[in-house]
Structures are given as structure tokens and as C-alpha cells.
């Protein structure tokens, strides 16, 4: 989790540097819910619907849909960044009288996750992490190699390597003229390279990659289109194998990414999974 703690479910008192952040209405009629607590205990000003007042901060939530709340949340986050002397305790704004759900409001506070002096409700952080996990799972389904259904079940998604893949094992296209070559200096154990040399032949429709090796290159292709995405050059020395450069597809008709670091991370994630290594760090960078 990003926050070191969460907003308490019930707040009855505040330390001198703490600010109670509550959902209000534009008229500043603090008659119910957290707004009433802010008015009775923490100095909310009747008639003021936005911003710092007393020892609290008002964010309007009663004026329409979620899209009408976002500008006020953005303004609050900016204010909190500028006032590090305060610690802002955000309540579940909008999730009471206003009628929204935690999953509706939580994404509005995504930029607050790494702001040290903003403390969020556990429910908001939980829903943001859930959304991030779902997004990453979807991205891995698209970018990852192997059977994604097995990946989600905690099984090894990589097909069993019973035969050696060759360029004749799949219908493939050459690397397009529009490409870029990125210098690399990445080593893997020689025994891991022996596994990689078996290649990768998809055994499920949702597997998006085909790969084969020759004496000096590792070649990755998109399985559905046959487009060549990566050609990595390698040399074997003693008990290790060194990848010296990575050629990457840059034809916009075949591939939309243009970030070299993203491609290095994705290539290394795919490669590391092939020999059963820990690819989690590479996936974090790639996604």
C-alpha cells in the first residue's frame, strides 16, 4: 500500500496539524454526515462549500456526477502538496448522503497515493489497488507469452518445451525496415539459455508470442500476425550468455510503442519467463 496508514473510520478529535477532509455542498450547508461533524467540531464555516476552513477542508460532492467532483479533488491534492505542514485525513467523501460508491470516488484520488501528507480511507486505497491489478492483468493478457488462463490460476503459462522451434514452425514476417537497434549488456546463465533455445511455440489462442533461436539471435514474433517484434543478438562465453543488442520493430502499422526502455523491459520479461526466472521486476517496468 502507498499510505503508511488510513483515515480512521471515526474521528472525534484532531491533532494540531491534522485537517479533516469532508464532502460538502456548494452552498456550504453543513447539515448532515461528515459535514455536520466538521461544522460542530472542527470549524467548518456555514456557507463555505469549498476549501480550507477552521481545521477542515471541504470538497463539494452534491452538484452532479463524479466528473463534477474531480476538479475539486485535483484542487485539494494541489493544496495538500503545497502545505506539507498539515496532515490531511480524507473521509469517504461522496459515499454518504451524496449517494456515490467507494469505487466511484476512489479513482479521483489516484494522484494522492504518493502524497505523504494525504491519508486516505482504506476503502479508497483497496479499490484503487484492485483497479490497478485488473489493469495489469489485462495488460499481461495482451503482452504476456503463454496461456494467460493458467497465469491467472497461478500455473506456469509457458508451453512445455517438447520440440525445438524453428523459423518453419510458424508463419512469420521479416523485421520491417523501420526498426531501431538498442545496445544491451545483459547476461543469463548458460543453462537458462539452453532452455530458451527450445523457443516458444504457442499452444493456446490467447498466447500472443512465437519465438525461436538460431546460433546468434533470439527472435520474437506476434503469434496472431506473424510480425517480427524483437531480434536480440547474443554470444555465449563459458558459463554465461550475454545479450549484446536488441533490434525492435518501429513500423507504426505493426507496432505502436516507441519507448526503448519499455521494449527492453518487455523483452526481458518474456525471456526470463521462458527459462523460469523471476520476471516480476521486468513486468513492473513494462506495464
Account of the 3D structure:
This protein has 287 residues and is of the alpha/beta class. It has 2 domains: 18-134, 3-Layer(aba) Sandwich (Leucine Aminopeptidase, subunit E, domain 1), CATH 3.40.220.10; 144-286, no CATH class. 30% of the residues lie in helices and 22% in strands. It contains 8 helices and 10 strands. The protein has helices at 33-41, 66-82, 102-105, 122-143, 148-152, 190-196, 260-274, 280-286, and strands at 18-24, 51-53, 56-60, 87-90, 118-119, 179-189, 209-213, 217-222, 228-237, 240-249. Strands 2-3-1-4-5 form a 5-stranded mixed sheet, with helices on both faces. It has a 5-stranded antiparallel sheet with strand order 6-10-9-8-7. A hairpin with a 5-residue loop joins strand 8 and strand 9. The longest helix is centred in the middle third of the chain and has 22 residues, at 122-143.
Amino acid at each position: 500500500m502507498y499510505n503508511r496508514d488510513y483515515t480512521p473510520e471515526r474521528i472525534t478529535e484532531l491533532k494540531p496539524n491534522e485537517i479533516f477532509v469532508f464532502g460538502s455542498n456548494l452552498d456550504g450547508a453543513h447539515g448532515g454526515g461528515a459535514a455536520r461533524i466538521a461544522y460542530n467540531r472542527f470549524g467548518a464555516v456555514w456557507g463555505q462549500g469549498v476549501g480550507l476552513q477552521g481545521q477542515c477542508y471541504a470538497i463539494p460532492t452534491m452538484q452532479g456526477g463524479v466528473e463534477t467532483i474531480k476538479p475539486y479533488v485535483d484542487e485539494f491534492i494541489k493544496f495538500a502538496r503545497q502545505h506539507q505542514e498539515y496532515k490531511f485525513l480524507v473521509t469517504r467523501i461522496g459515499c454518504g448522503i451524496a449517494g456515490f460508491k467507494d469505487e466511484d470516488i476512489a479513482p479521483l484520488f489516484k494522484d494522492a497515493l504518493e502524497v505523504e501528507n494525504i491519508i486516505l480511507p482504506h476503502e479508497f486505497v483497496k479499490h484503487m489497488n484492485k483497479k490497478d491489478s485488473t489493469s495489469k492483468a489485462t495488460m499481461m493478457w495482451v503482452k504476456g507469452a503463454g496461456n494467460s488462463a493458467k497465469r491467472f490460476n497461478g500455473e506456469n503459462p509457458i508451453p512445455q518445451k517438447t520440440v525445438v522451434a524453428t523459423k518453419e514452425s510458424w508463419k512469420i514476417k521479416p523485421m520491417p525496415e523501420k526498426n531501431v537497434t538498442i545496445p544491451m549488456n545483459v547476461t543469463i546463465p548458460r543453462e537458462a539459455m539452453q532452455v530458451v533455445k527450445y523457443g516458444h511455440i504457442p499452444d493456446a489462442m490467447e498466447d500472443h508470442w512465437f519465438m525461436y533461436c538460431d546460433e546468434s539471435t533470439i527472435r520474437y514474433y506476434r503469434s496472431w500476425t506473424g510480425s517480427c517484434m524483437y531480434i536480440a543478438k547474443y554470444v555465449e562465453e563459458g558459463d554465461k550468455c550475454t545479450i549484446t543488442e536488441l533490434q525492435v520493430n518501429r513500423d507504426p502499422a505493426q507496432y505502436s510503442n516507441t519507448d526503448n526502455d519499455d521494449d527492453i523491459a518487455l523483452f526481458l520479461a518474456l525471456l526470463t519467463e521462458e527459462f523460469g526466472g523471476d520476471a516480476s521486476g521486468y513486468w513492473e517496468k513494462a506495464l
